[in-house]
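Protein entry
_____________
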Amino acid sequence: MLQGEFTEDQLKILEHFVTSTTSDVFVLRNLPEVIKGALFSRYSRSALGLRTLLLKEFILNEDTGFSSITGQYCDSDASHQMVAIQKAQNFYDRILDGYGDDSIGELGGAHLAIENISMLAAKVIEDCRIGGSPLEKSTRYIYFDQKVDGQYLFYREPVLMTSAHRELYLATCNHLFETYSKLIPPLTAKIEQGFPKDPNISKTAYAAALRAKVLDCLRGLLPCSAMTNMGVFGNGRFFESLLQKLNVHNLAEMQEVGKNSYQELAKVIPSFIRRADPLHRHAMAQTQFIDALQQDLKQYVALHAQSLQGSSRPGVKLIHWDSDALAKIGGALLYSYGHFGLAESQSYCRQLSREDLDQLLAMASHNRQNRRHKSPRALEHASFTFEIVADFGVYRDLQRHRILTQERQLLSCQHGYFTPPEILGTEMQSEYELAMQRAQAAYQIISQQFAEEAQYVVPMAYNVRWYYHVNLRSLQWLCELRSQAAGHPTYRLIAQEMARQVVQAIPQLEHFFKFVDFEGYELGRLGAEVRHEEKQKAGV
């Protein structure tokens, strides 16, 4: 920055909005998202420095409504700020439309809280992968047996609640919650007896690990209508896409969440989500496209249903991999260290001996000291497609990985369910299985008329079928993370099996799964709880 560029009064103003008025590196602060996004948009096509641009074209520009929006350089009343933003909306919309494409929506963001939604809705929201960071209430650390006003917390789906299935739906969900609540004490006692506390382990760490183990076992009893809470941080582009998907969804809950989210986000980042307004021409066109696509595909499947059958056997199946993966990875590894073409470097690797190619691949992995050491991007040149049949609880855990392509089928009771081994052979097994059978019977009745709404009555223990299409770099991260001792035992097995099947298909890729934990653990969360407690004591 040029010395003396700003007057003393201007510096005092700027100090409130930037972390430094002298450094070439600084952070914006105390600015609404709409101003930050518009400022960066304008910045890309201006010869001015960001602070100069902020001062001259925003702070001192009457069209921006800057002082009203920011409260004359101090915290302002939220409702007053919202009105001020709306008054200046045309100015910001012109900038965002005129100085960039859809990527401009990534320059501003918001934190959105979404409470009292079903676990089914949470998965729809989390399926929007890029640009958003969701967090969801955990079934592992929080008991879901609470009642409010004498009622268990599950979503009362409006279509079902006004249908002939109302009482069946309520009775089934209540029975699932009652069984969940009833089995907590005896299962806790059984696991505690099988894994008594080590005198060297604190009561707090042991209790936390024990609770996690019990709730991991029993979460399968929770229906997908069970209420949860979410926090979502995302940029404007993410929220626009999310809102459009919710608006066109077939289920009433998703549409309601979309409507309410749009209403609240419009108070903070209105310019970034305006095209998600259901009455906007882009949103209307999107609705028409999705409706037509779904109708066509449903008709096609109905016509060819007899030829489209598949196995319901639980497990993981690697159904596609690239036979040329090794040469593609090797060529990409060499590429940035020379001045040759990618095609030439990959062709060169195809001609290497197995020993030489193996040595090259080892170079990309042997210096990794832990799973957080990210492998080179060259691994993204190899891709794999898996189909997984596992319980919905596992899907909830694995679905959150972002850098991959995945799709699931509608939840149903057609593929069987998972029974935790800790329950097998005990008196608890009969109650657990009775709850599953009652839910299946209810699902079969409801789904004949309401196939999508019937998903709400499906317990999380029932299996769902979905696929993963993922590159090796992302798969390495997934398998090494999800196989760790503290993870849920069922998804640990899936992560381990994915790694095994890839190595079986292409043995040389074993280099890239060195931190996959193939061990089994009975009280897997205990080690993590002990380490957490030690960090707290050390003030880390």
Q: What stands out?
A: Residues 339 and 345 are 10 Å apart (CA to CA). Residues 72-76 have pLDDT under 50 and may be disordered.
